UniProtKB/TrEMBL annotation, chain A:
This is FecR family protein. Residues 267-328 form the Protein FecR C-terminal domain. The chain crosses the membrane at residues 87-107. Pfam families: FecR, FecR_C. Residues 132-219 form the FecR protein domain.
From TrEMBL, chain B:
The keyword Chaperone does not apply. Belongs to the sigma-70 factor family. ECF subfamily. Signal peptide: none annotated. It comes from Chitinophaga skermanii. This is RNA polymerase sigma factor (Sigma-70 family). GO terms for biological process: DNA-templated transcription initiation. Keywords: Sigma factor, Transcription, Transcription regulation. It comes from the Bacteria. Residues 117-168 form the RNA polymerase sigma factor 70 region 4 type domain. Pfam families: Sigma70_r4_2. GO terms for molecular function: DNA binding; sigma factor activity.
Amino acid sequence: MDNVTVEWLIAQPSFINYCLREHEQDVHSWRQWLQAHPEHADIFNEAEDIVKSTGWLLVAEKEKAGAMALMDDYLRTSKPRSRNKQLYWWSTAAAAAVIAVLVIVKWPTKQSNIPTTVASAPLQLHYSADGSTRKSILLPDSTYVLLDKHSTLDIDAGYNTQNRHVVLNGTGYFKIKSQANLPFDVKGGDYTVTALGTAFKMTVTPGHVHVMLEQGKVKVEQGVNEHRKLLTYLLPMESYNSAINHHQSKAQVFEQTALALWKTEEIIFEHTPLEEVVAQLESCYNVDINIEGVDLKKETFSGKFRNDSLQSVLNVLCFAVNKQYQFTDATSVLIK
Amino acid sequence: MQDDVKTWQSFCDGDDVSFRDLYSKYYTRLFVWGCRWLDGETAFVKDSLHDFFIYLWEKKDNLSRDVHVDKYLLTAFKRRLIEQWGKVKRLDNITDYINLSGEELDEQAIFDTRYSLIQTALQQLTPAQREVIEWRFIKHMSLQEIADAKNTSLRTVYNLTHRAIAQLRASIGKKNILFLW
């Protein structure tokens, strides 16, 4: 053990595990090794510091853009608003049980038109729906996503730990679990829409964005990182279309019917866990569904629905799981 | 450093652009220092850093205009971070942890020069190297998990990781006894 160097240590996968405090066995082994070789303590500590600090620096660099945007928000709003108001705003977002988002992104057909900032973002997971069916996804934070045909969704490597960034290509419906410390944002082309306790629809075409807010609040920005320019905040049932509004931040009113129709246009389950079935039905029909006496993670359901009413879907679902449903109020369903 | 003083004084006079410049300039290094003090509580450090700068902005009228900016930020941030951590964790006797030791102040002096070396080193990694390092150190994915995600062999990921870390180490210099950020 005379040739113990920093290089040798950091080349050992088990040593990295020790530094990251993963795999109890490795942590235990390296603690024992250090006790047995106190003469190498300096080198050991240096190697551990390199591994840890590299991770922290990388985290810091990933967090910085979001932190700068958050500070810009604060500076922008601190003039007319007090700090308490700002914090209240975010705590309101935390109080919301769930928030839903519908996003439609139409990428430019030419690859060269895609901003490199989006394409170069470090990505962890890639989802895609082919031309035949929509695809439903439950993200790590229980955010539900319904991807339309010919659409893709990329999830940032730090999703649900450092951030909640997603990149959409095509059309998607998002029902977001609210987290005050991790705002959810969708990038589409040069635009970013940040959910602040919210349900909204977004369409991006080359050079333009169209956002329709269903409930809550959204912030629409253009640009990248600290160069982001605030376009507008929207109130429920308001929309913003850059192609029409140009440089104005004037909101328009829209009808919710079109959004509701899109959501129920086609719902397909194929051996889908009931947990996802419930999430999708709740999102599409804007109701809360509780099921009693069924293991939502183990039981699955298959069925195809096109422009069907909620009652029609519930009839089939309840027949399949041998249960009955009842409305406990206008937007709550109990299945037992 | 003289520029920092001018920026600081301008911020004290209420210039939000200067304030923003300070936040941008010191964000990463204060973040890393915070993680060192709290041994990797990144989420808490992130929130505390934001709150700390908002605190500075709100108190700008009462701040001393004649400060050693980097030492002041480091010391003041550590004080608030440890105090908040103590409250959250209901710790007693946190005072012992708050004051910066002479050793740490020495570290901070070295930090300025080392910091740029590390950032340069990270920038010199190939995209593939950077990706495996991020997955390994931020997502804490195992080499096998990275290999599965990249649809490549374990040996390839092992080599990429090893070369990346070795390059970081080489860029920063082997003469340093301690790796101080």
